[in-house]
Structures are given as C-alpha cells and as structure tokens.
Amino acid sequence: MLTVEEARAEILARVRPLETECVDLLGALGRVLAEPVVSTREIPPWSNSAMDGYAVRAEDARARGSRLRVVGRIAAGSLPRRSLAAGEAMRIFTGAPLPEGADAVVPQEEVEVEGNGILIRNTVEIGAFVRPRGEDVRAGETVVERGAVIGPAEVGLLATLGRAQLRVYRRPRVAILSTGDELADLGSEPAPGQIPNSNTYSLMGQVVEAGGEPINLGVARDQLESIEERLRWSLGADVLISSAGVSVGEHDLVKEALTRAGAELHLWQVSMRPGKPITFGSLLGRPVFGLPGNPVSAMVTFELFVRPALRAMAGHRTLDRLRVRARAIEPIPNPGSRRGYLRVMLVSEAGGYGARLTGNQGSSILRSMAQADGLAVVPGDTVVRVGSDVEVIVLRGLEQRSL
Ligand code: AMP
Ligand code: MG
Fold first, then answer.
1. What was the pLDDT predicted at 403?
2. What are φ and ψ of residue 290, in 5° steps?
3. Which atom of ligand 1 is closest in space to residue 249's alpha carbon?
4. Which of 195, 373, 379, 396 is most buried (CB neighbours < 10 A)?
C-alpha cells in the first residue's frame, strides 16, 4: 500500500503547467501570472501632498512662528502655476502635485490664517507630509513577479501601472463522470433502490474552488459501453475525474473502460481513511483520476491528490492547504491501521486553535463534511487525547462556516 505522500509525488511528477493566455485585469484574480510585470511608470508620478494644508520650503520655517505669504492654490488634478520662492507658501490639497521649490507640507490644522498669509506655529521637517515621486514604484522595476498569485491588491497595483490585460496560466478544464446504476441525477426523483448523485456536484464545487472549470459528464451506468461513451465526451478536457466503480467488485468497470479507451493506469491502494482505492493514470496525455464512490472518500481524495495537481496545472507553486496545529478539545480516535483524515471543527482559543470532531466519520456522511473546517491528520491506531496537539489541514477560513 502506498503512503499519501508517495501517491501524491507520483501524481505531481506527471503534471505540468498548462499554456498561458491573455485575460482582462479582473479575470486574472486568483490566477497565476505567467510573465513578470515591469513598470513603465513612476508611482506616484510626481511628489504630492499627503494632507490638506500648505506647501512650503522647510528652511522658511526653521524658527517657530514663521510667517509666509500664500501665493497660489493647487487642488488634486491641477498643476502648480509657478514655483515657490523664499518666504512663500501655496494652499495645497491631498494628492495635488507639490510646486517646484517646495519640500514640505504643513497640515492646515497647524497654521493660523492671517489675511493673505499664514503663521506656522512649529518648525517643519524637510519631506514632512510629502509623498515623493516613485516612492511606491520606480520605472523599470519588476512590480509583480512571474508566478505570483493575483489578489485584489495586485489588481489595484496593475491598474496603477496601466495594465488592462495580463498573461496568466490557463485554468484546467476538468471533466467529471459519476458512475453507478443506483444513481438518480439532480432533477429526477430517486426511484426505489436509487440514491441521489452527489459526487458530481461536490466534485464540481471542489474544481471551481481549486481554480478549474468543471465539465459535467453526468452519470454512466455500470456498463462498459455507457462509461466509454461518456469518456469520449471528455476529450476536450485537460483532466478527467470519475467517481465510484474503482474497487474490485464485478460492477466496478471504470478501470476497464479507461484502459479500453487507451488510458495507462495505476490502481493504488493508498493507506488512508477515508479513501484507499484510487486510480491514477493518463488518457491521451491527460491526467485521469478514478476516485472512490463514497461521497466523503471522493472529496477527501480530491483534496489530497486532485487539488494539488489542478493547482500545479494552473501554474501555482504553493499546492497545498495551510496546516495548523490544534489542541484536541475531545478525544480524536483513529481506529485501524490507515492514516486518518478526520473531519473537525476549529475553534479559536487563546494562543491558537482547538479541534473537535464534526460527528459521524462514516465515509458516506456528507453532513459531517459540510461542518468541517478542516481534516485532522491522525496516524493509524492512535487516539489523540484531550489537550494534545493534532495537525489539521484547513479547508476553509472560519468566516466561511455555515453556522
Ligand atoms: P462504489 O465504489 O461504486 O462501490 O461506490 C461506493 C459507494 O458510493 C456506494 O454506496 C455508492 O452508492 C456511493 N456512490 C457512488 N457514486 C456516488 C455518487 N455519484 N453520489 C453519491 N454516492 C455515490
Ligand atoms: Mg458502484
């Protein structure tokens, strides 16, 4: 049986970043930049005022109680009409360009207005309340590196640089196939003996969350022809994920259908719970995952194996979720020899996190997955005692939980 790390390494050794494409600035959000962005601009483009006040020459206010003549007014969006001479000040507003000759701004609350002049009560430092040209970005500087993930601040920065379009890695298109004679798809009422298809939808959600584009191939019957037909529909995708039908039962035909379609496959037993049987291989050069059928097993194996692969294809360098150490609030048992990935809720505690199980850990119990903030990683045949630390893979920010 492989360890999770061995299976993951085998998978990641076989995936590469996809091609790149040009997208609109906001379309790059969450995606990975495929070329460095070098600024052609100085930001700010000219030295400007950080306050509403008066532009001055600091040397004119060397002594307390200096009086200066106000000789002009510069609002944001306008230019100073002339430069500033000794003994002069100009009214200036936040963001307005500093006039030539000025080297400081005195906030308006620190002066007294006297007719056409101002009285400055205190001395003034050179550079006070001035935002110097190029303080944020110099022309020629690399501002966002290749490989950076574009967040809202990068979007703003790139807008500042005038970049309406960016080159990023393409999102993987991921075809999702559910298999099983017992499955009734969304929109039809399950007949006696049928259960609703949930895997297609949880997996599509996970694909979207991982930055991919899901393609729903629907439900195949437990017949080779039915599976093969839908496999042909997957040809436009970059990745194929199937769920169920990968064990060794006589209705488990996914492996055979994939092989007949030309896939090279490895069937692995991975030492984990939930999970265990998974197929991985390639079909016409594209990665193929055969995940287990139980709803939580499908989701957890997606987390551990498919998500990092999709992120690598989308150009990400950080492939894994954040892991934190949490203190067990109640005993967290993992009976059995396989490593456990147990659904836990996290609570903020002084100095860190506490973790408690979300309930029934059966591999078909989706409700305890819905409540999980993370997966506690527990070695086989181990009970994590109250107060002991456990490692938790964080699945979502605590602000995203349902209750
Ligand atoms: P299998 O690997 O085909 O034996 O499936 C294992 C378990 O997962 C069975 O109880 C199936 O009914 C269930 N299952 C398989 N596919 C799905 C699905 N798409 N949605 C919900 N449950 C499923
Ligand atoms: Mg089945």
1. 61
2. -105, 105
3. 4
4. 373
Any ligand 1 atom below 6 A from CB of 194: no
Closest ligand 1 atom to residue 297 Cα is: 8
Classify strands 352-357 and 323-328 as parallel, antiparallel or unpaired: parallel
Tokens linked to 15: 């995936």
Contact between residue 124 and residue 61 where contact means Cβ atoms under 8 Å apart: yes
For the chain, first and last CA: distance in Å?
Answer: 38
CB 173 within 8 A of CB 213: yes
CA distance 331 to 39: 55
CB 137 within 8 A of CB 161: yes
| Cα torsion angle, 200, 204, 207, 209, sign | negative
pLDDT along the chain (403 residues), means of 10: 95 97 98 98 97 97 92 96 97 98 97 96 96 97 97 97 97 97 96 97 98 97 95 93 87 90 90 92 95 97 98 97 97 96 95 96 96 97 98 91 67
Q: For residue 366, give both structure tokens.
A: 């989706």
Strands 272-273 and 339-349: parallel
User: For the chain, which domains are there?
Assistant: 4-16+171-313 (3.40.980.10), 21-42+141-169 (3.90.105.10), 48-131 (2.170.190.11), 323-400 (2.40.340.10)
